[in-house]
Amino acid sequence: MRGVANSLRGYLDAASTEPLHPAAREILREAYDTGWADPARLYGSARRARLLLDNAREIVAAAIGARPDEVSFTASGTQAVHLAVLGTIAARTRTGRHVVVSAVEHSSVLHAAASVPSAEVDRVPVDRTGLVDPVVFAASLRPDTALACLQAANHEVGSVQPVAEVAMLCAERDVPLIVDAAQTVGRLAVPDGWSVLAASAHKWGGPPGVGVLAVRRRTRWRPPWPEDERGAGRVPGFENVPGAIAAAAALRARLAEAQELNGVHTPLVDWIRARIPELVSDVEVVGHPTRRLPHIVTFSCLYVDGEALLTELDREGFAVSSGSSCTASTLTPSHVLEAMGVLTHGNIRVSLSRTTTEEDVARFLHVLPDVVRRLRASAGVDGL
Asked: Is the pLDDT score of 74 beyond 60?
């Protein structure tokens, strides 16, 4: 356990994935011993697995404001998003193939919408804080709009979208709204009005390889691939029962501590947002200053390469992300930052985990100016 604790010192990339929550770690091994059987069968061990799976579904459903029979577990958050988009379009082909999305949606949403043959995708612009205007969003809806997509909160800059307002406007036009709530579940209340919702367990401290797809009973949805008797006909294949059990345990524990953690994270992020421009010149802190997730802060440094900045911070013991969180392996310019019209060079996203301390943040703020100074000096730029 000491090695695990040491590995989390300086871990500031919780928006990518949270370390496994202790509640999930404790139950996961037990779940493999008790929930290994086929939950679709009728013998004792199978009925026990089904009971555990149903219990996990009830916990998740309560957390997102859904009925248990509306919730299915998927192999990942990305698969949940793909099923949400493709399944909704498949059920509404008579309406049309027009899709409305915000310009800052996760790449899984954009790629899924773009993959539909002859689909017409409209990207609704955002302001410099990353928020859509509900009126502008609604103005993009048409009689042939099959669906609309709006994330609960942005994965790169943390801005919380006006989902409830947009959902009301979509409902008035009978357009289902898909909400990617991956960054919100376990941290903030899930906004009302969604028709289909996607989430990912490893974002709240559950195990990787477990996603959540929730489809309202009143929403038309059809499997985009051959139907299967499992997963309520929505998700084919053998359910990952141990993973679902551990995900539910982590979510229940995370919800119990969310208010306390948010009370810790919010002032720490406020501190970073205030101090970065004081410590480093030619820097832009992006995202909405108040309407945001409690644990994310993103900033961009002029005259600094994002990959180099990430590498140097890693050498100092800090794990952060740079570039688009969806394309970090290539460090291509972030479509989110480009849509916001903000600085994209030298971009760093800091996201606090449940183990982050004030000392971690203080050390980060102490180290960052010298790292930026060295990189700018090597690029022939004097000063900070």
From this structure: yes
List 149, 170, 301, 326, catalytic entry: 326
Beta-ladder partners of 72: 213
Q: Is the pTM of this model over 0.85?
A: yes
Closest CA to 77 of 227, 218, 191, 184: 184
Known catalytic residue: 326? yes
Residue 194: both structure tokens together: 């969604």
Which residue in the block uniquely carries the two structure tokens 């790449």?
107
pLDDT in tens, 286-344: 999 999 999 999 999 999 988 899 999 999 999 999 864 444 445 577 999 999 999 98
Radius of gyration of the chain (CA): 21
Q: Which two tokens stand for residue 90?
A: 């498949």
Q: How far apart are CA 253 and CA 257, in angstroms?
A: 7
Query: Which residue reads 């038309």 in tokens?
Result: 220
Structure tokens at 323: 């570039």
24 CA to centre of own chain: 19
DSSP label at residue 229: S
